Amino acid sequence: GGDPGFQKDTKSEDRSDVRKPAPQISPSEIDSTIKMLEEVEDYTFLTLCDNFKRGTMALDIECGTGKYTGLLSEKGATVTGVDRDPHKIKLAQKDTKKRIRYLVHDYLKPLQSSVQYDLVTCHHLLCSAKTKLHLKLMLKTCFLAIRPGGKFVAINDNNFQHPDEFPKLIPSGYIKATDAQVGPNGFFPDGSIVVQET
């Protein structure tokens, strides 16, 4: 039985525990995948945030250069964008709309404002938590800012997905890769995570 063209190499040692390298991805595949991911993520984000009225008070935590603060503002929300990187806030302010306010703030600490928001969002914030304590502090910052009955929307990546699982994403139109050598359980020998999203 079996494939007559296939012969098992009995001379080589058993290497079943060695992880296969990630497939090589061309720059054009990466560019098209990033564009597609942005379209899917934008659609998902706006769908989850939908059903708010003009003037809804929204807080975008880890707003970066203001992409999602801008999308919320275009939909009619009055938005505050928060990021701990002053350079990103400066870039966001260059393209500011009248309903967007930007603040430099460390999201491991609750906002000092007494304002509570109808909608609090964060993108790839929670998956960047370095410890359980950091995750708890990030969530505390988010939830203290939400008014009773408000909404919380978080978009995240699975940083613990092993590279052997990446090819399963391709039929859905996603390409995720790492060029790192993978150790046991998807971590480098020093314990840091290997996964790098592209």
UniProtKB/TrEMBL annotation:
Matches recorded under CDD domains: AdoMet_MTases
Residue span(s) of domain Methyltransferase type: 59-153
One Pfam family from the record: Methyltransf_11
Coiled-coil ranges (or none): none
Signal peptide positions (record): none
Domain of life per record: Eukaryota
One Gene Ontology term of the molecular function aspect: S-adenosylmethionine-dependent methyltransferase activity
Protein name per Swiss-Prot or TrEMBL: Methyltransferase type 11 domain-containing protein
